[in-house]
Design a protein that fits this description.
754 residues, alpha+beta, TIM Barrel, eight-stranded parallel beta sheet, six-stranded antiparallel beta sheet, 15 helices, 35 strands, Galactose-bd-like_sf, GH29D-like_dom, alpha-L-fucosidase activity, Glyco_hydro_29_N
Length: 754
């Protein structure tokens, strides 16, 4: 035997032992099949590629992670001073009186969530500004110092009662970042205090806790403060099912460190059913747009043991858990993704006029891609300044819930012939697919129309295993492949063109270990008129067309959007009114400026979602007079070419003074401008600036300063209304501050309004 062969013996033996274990655990009845599985499995130095794959197939969710997966569709609520200042990120020094809340209707929140089919809500108990929404013993920077209910109000208490009333689980977002504790002269964040043994919770005279549990931790002032507030949240507001930790830090001070392992001990003891987001419990999907990966494995490789880690970096890559990625890890850990986004532009409520709301088509599509793509859908609904969800948001939530129920509330495989373990509603039944069971057939009592098919692996007991599969339908006497897909995990929703059939076939094509399925179902989604896209060309002509559906396939060479829009007509308005059946029919591009175009599609008297676009002055006569600098591929003319994918970019480090000067062609009175940042790159976001006016392009008048927040995470267009309109021919945008400390400025599109 050669030395190289001897080196392979441990890996071979280990693989054989694992295979023997799987085989030996097999019982006569597959229902009693048990594998040796763990939430975290260590990779040994002598593990081969095959043994790592086999280990990955035996990583399973914890009880709390499994419950989080089963929640599927959950709510985020961003509420606080930003709601009233109309900013995305506060500075921590807001006077608590700005939280001038007169009314609060958390029952309305929960009714809307219930209508949408949401099972849990996570509220920003404390955002980055440090303002708290509950009656904390440990700070006065919160509702206790606000006009709300004369300082006696408690948002958490009201929401907790409503959650109990409507059967909604409750989670809390407690920001580790705290600008109030940073900026306040007596603030605790980064104050360089000594680490000493301290009792949690710290006793406060006149405010005893009903829960008498105490803990001792060696911590500094800020970690003690954080633990005290965690104790309050976890003991005084009913069961807490999720604790949400954000990784964002608008500002740091004093090298402040977080003792997360102490936080985790407190959470485990006081909220044993809570999953922790942003740590080893659940993870960020990597964007705030509701984008999903085509393949989302939840077995994540780590260089360290995640059970003992204190810091967790965001996992943002397109490929986070392929076999090649697993090979680079030292530990394999089950960690579901939360696909998060907001129903509105931005996390906090700003206004009803300019802040767009996602339409039902968009929310339902994200639901299918996220829940049906092995992740959890976390949708933010920000309450308005009346303490309620806005009517537009409530309408979208209700319509989304109706679509989910109409589509997935009816299983077309009911009474079908096929494996009983997959067709029942028993979550404890499953089917082991041996080599002779990799093709499964389902025969329906009669022919039905179908365009959705859901599959679930038995991840609770056997982990994620299937890596490629296909679905076929029996059509005109032969099998026709409907869709080819990758992994399954907790749930995969297959979407495909409508087909009439009485027989379906599921083929498992590749897997990491013996596949174990838990459930399958078939459904029909009633096609709606498509979401429309409104666009103005560089020549000033407005075009309206259906957006391409976000499906990852083209059936039989046909265009899916074309199939969905047969018999469609598009109607529109330009006077601000909502379009209807009697509105102008769109037939060809038209010239339009300084107003809002609203449009919808109609199919068989079924009205689609309203799309709208606010358009400023025509730009075909504009000229770029001067720019501080620009790259050849990103010259200044690109900021008014009506194309959001192109952009002006000033040169990094060339000058400290970044600006652009434009000639509007004629003297014009303007009352507002809109800055659209580029979404192609994350740098160059203009956070602060000054708008100047000039009649001759030589003598300039400063008109007003502007400020936009959270552009890096939310690169959407921002409208700024001037306090007073003014007449000008030339305009200059002077950059004062660029987000993220970057040294080059970018503008995808600049618009001015009369």
């Amino acid at each position: 035997m050669t030395k190289s062969t001897l080196k392979k013996v441990p890996s071979i033996l280990k693989l054989l032992m694992l295979l023997f274990l799987v085989a030996s655990c097999r019982e006569e009845t597959t229902k009693n099949l048990i594998y040796t599985t763990q939430n975290t499995i260590k990779i040994d130095e002598d593990d081969s590629r095959d043994s790592i794959i086999l280990k990955a197939a035996h990583v399973v969710p914890s009880k709390n992670q499994m419950n989080a997966l089963k929640d599927e569709f959950i709510a985020f609520v961003h509420f606080g001073p930003n709601t009233f200042t109309k900013l995305e990120w506060g500075n921590g020094m807001e006077d608590p009186s700005v939280f001038n809340l007169k009314n609060l209707d958390t029952d309305q929140w929960c009714r809307a969530m219930k209508d949408a089919g949401m099972k849990k809500v996570i509220i920003t108990a404390k955002h980055h500004d440090g303002f708290v929404l509950w009656q904390s013993r440990y700070t006065k920077h919160g509702v206790m110092s606000s006009p709300f209910q004369n300082g006696e109000g408690d948002i958490l208490k009201e929401l907790s009662k409503s959650c109990e009333k409507y059967g909604i689980k409750l989670g809390v977002y407690l920001s580790p970042a705290d600008l109030y504790q940073i900026e306040n002269k007596d603030g605790l964040y980064g104050n360089l205090s000594e680490y000493t043994v301290r009792t949690i919770p710290r006793a406060v005279e006149g405010r005893p806790f009903e829960n008498k549990t105490t803990f001792e931790f060696e911590v500094d002032d800020y970690n003690e403060y954080f633990l005290n507030q965690l104790f309050e949240l976890l003991t005084e507001y009913g069961p807490i099912d999720e604790v949400w930790f954000d990784g964002a830090h608008p500002k740091r001070k004093g090298g402040q460190q977080y003792k997360y392992r102490d936080w985790k001990k407190l959470i485990t003891a006081l909220a044993p059913d809570a999953v922790v987001f942003g740590k080893e419990g659940t993870r960020w999907c990597g964007n705030e747009a509701g984008a999903t990966r085509e393949t989302e494995w939840n077995i994540i490789p780590y260089a360290e043991d995640p059970r003992t880690m204190n810091l967790f970096a965001d996992i943002t890559g397109e490929d986070v858990a392929s076999v090649d990625k697993l090979m680079k890890g030292k530990y394999l850990h089950y960690q579901p993704a939360e696909t998060n986004t907001s129903i509105r532009e931005g996390w906090f409520y700003r206004n009803e006029d300019e802040q767009k709301v996602r339409n039902t088509d968009d929310v339902f599509d994200i639901y299918e891609r996220s829940v049906g793509g092995n992740s959890i859908f976390l949708l933010n609904i920000p309450p308005n300044r009346e303490g309620k969800f806005s009517d537009k948001d409530v309408k979208v939530l209700k319509e989304t819930g109706i679509r989910i129920n109409e589509t997935y509330g009816i299983d077309l495989l009911e009474n079908a012939d096929g494996p009983a373990e997959l067709l029942d509603t028993d979550e404890d039944s499953f089917l082991v697919l041996d080599n002779d069971k990799l093709i499964l057939e389902f025969t329906l009592p009669k022919e039905v129309k179908i365009n959705r098919f859901t599959i679930q692996e038995d991840v609770k007991r056997h982990g994620e295993r299937v890596s490629r599969h296909a679905l076929d339908a029996w059509v005109d006497g032969s099998w026709q492949e409907l869709v080819l897909s990758t992994n399954i995990g907790y749930k995969r929703i297959l979407r495909f063109p409508e087909v009439a059939t009485n027989k379906l076939r599921l083929r498992i094509l590749d897997f990491r270990a013996i596949p174990v399925l838990q459930n399958v179902s078939a459904h029909f989604y009633k096609s709606r008129p498509p979401v429309l896209d409104i666009h103005r060309s560089e020549a000033g002509l407005v075009d309206i067309a259906p957006k391409m559906a976000d499906f990852k396939w083209k059936p039989h060479g046909e265009n899916a959007s074309g199939n969905l829009t047969k018999g469609m007509k598009i109607v529109y308005t330009t006077n601000g009114e909502e379009p209807n059946e009697s509105s102008t029919i769109f037939s060809k591009p038209f010239s339009f400026a300084n107003g809002t175009v609203k449009a919808l599609a109609i199919i068989n008297q079924d009205l689609g979602s309203v799309a709208q676009l606010s358009l400023g002055l025509q730009k075909n006569n504009w000229k770029a007079v001067k720019a501080s600098s620009n790259y050849e591929d990103h010259h200044v003319n690109l900021l008014f070419d009506e194309n959001k994918d192109s952009y002006w970019l000033s040169k990094e480090g060339v000058d400290e003074d970044h600006y652009v000067t434009l000639d509007l062609g004629d003297e014009t009175e303007i009352s507002a401008f809109k800055y659209t940042p580029t979404s192609t790159i994350s740098t160059g976001m203009i956070e602060k600036g000054i708008i100047y006016s000039s009649m001759d392009g030589i003598h300039w008048q400063a008109e007003e300063t502007f400020e936009f927040g959270n552009l890096i995470n939310d690169p959407t267009g921002r409208l700024f209304k001037f306090k007073k309109s003014f007449s000008t021919r030339y305009v200059k945008l002077q950059v004062v501050e660029i987000a993220g400390g970057n040294s080059s400025a970018a503008i995808a599109e600049l618009d001015f309004f009369k």
